[in-house]
Amino acid sequence: MNRKITESITWVGKIDWDLNTFHGQELRSGILYSSGN
Q: From which domain of life does this come (predicted)?
């Protein structure tokens, strides 16, 4: 999944639906990984 924010910035991310916990916290809707360019 990606989205152009401005001419020089594009957001790129992925939702991991299989991850159920993160740092001991229960996740009901997965977690979002993202990076910017």
A: Bacteria
- The yes-or-no verdict on residue 6 having pLDDT over 80 is yes
Which candidate, 9, 27, 26, 7, places its Cα nearest to that of 17? 27
Question: Exposure of 26 by Cβ count < 10 A (0-12 exposed, 13-18 middle, 19+ buried)?
Answer: exposed
How far apart CA 20 and CA 29 sit, in angstroms, is 8
Q: What is the DSSP string of 15-37?
A: EETT--EETTEE-SS-EEEEEE-
Tokens for 3?
Answer: 């989205």
pTM of the entire predicted model: 0.36
